[in-house]
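Lab notebook, bench 4. The sequencing result for the construct came back, and we need a structural model before the next group meeting so we can plan mutations. Quick request posted to the team channel:

Model the 3D structure of this chain.
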Amino acid sequence: MTDLRELLGIRHPIILAPFGGLSSVALTAAVSDAGGLGSYGLYGYDGERIRATARALREATSAPFSLNIWLPTGDEVLPGPEHDAYAAALESFFAEVGIERPARPERYLPSLEEQLDAIWEAAPAVLSVVFGVPAASLVDEAHRRGIRVLGTATTVAEAVALADGGVDAIVATGAEAAGHRVSFLRAAEESLVGLVSLVPQVADAVDVPVIAAGGIADRRGAAAAFALGASGVQVGTSFLVTEESAANDAHRAAIRSTAADASVLTRAMSGRLSRGVRNRAVAEIEASAAIAPFPAQNWLTGRFRAVAGQRGMGELQSLWLGQSAPLASRATAAAVFTELLAGVPAV
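Done. Here's the predicted structure in token form:
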């Protein structure tokens, strides 16, 4: 099997998880410069913003980096007459941060085609995808341009589908992981496999390198992942708490104070199942039972979440974190990287 480091052009098999909405150029560059693979999540980015982000990344680092996109699943709703009702259900949150109820936009998300056009121009070393198997044409175009493709699986069946689809490596993400559950063959609620069960079964089922993600926060988690058959590790929450990340102080405080059994899986903030803190916004939206489908819910809550984030109002933010949040205690990306590297087997 191809060595992951050789495949991705990196010195160490440590990958920064791509944070949709929370990525920062500084953190991505710090992980890449340390010899790992820095990742930047492009959820919601239009072509112009992708191009600007890629330019900033190239100015910040000369090392390889990854760009991440969400594949459309086909059940995404478009802005329609229902928008006003969806917005009305969140009226109290708009009022609390002092903004008007947002009018229906022309679109909730940019098209995949627009994003890919910009990504091909950006020419990252790696393109990672979530929520599905990339089309053969996408994989072929990436490979033609010298770009490696990573897919993301939450079950063995998803991993096999991705391998059959031609991806270069597979991120096996356990149910412990922060943020969105990126399942695509079955409902996310029916695809909650823990990392210890998932990684060895995926490693046995596919012939491409497997990257373990979910619950890995220090040298112990990294060592365990490699012992289970992983060729690399992808880490999110431990990097999210660092000073280089785009998380604000309220989010960092939530990571440091949330016990392993206190995070929840919820559709409240985005319409898709995600792991994070059950703060007041999550609790009240769940209690109302008025959760719009994706991406309408994500777009609407994003209007008040953005203001809340600027003001450090943690009770109105999406505070994504994984079950190993109590282990995320290091203040800098370099410190996290050094700790993880101590768990990587010697070659």
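The mean pLDDT is 97.
Will bring this to the meeting.
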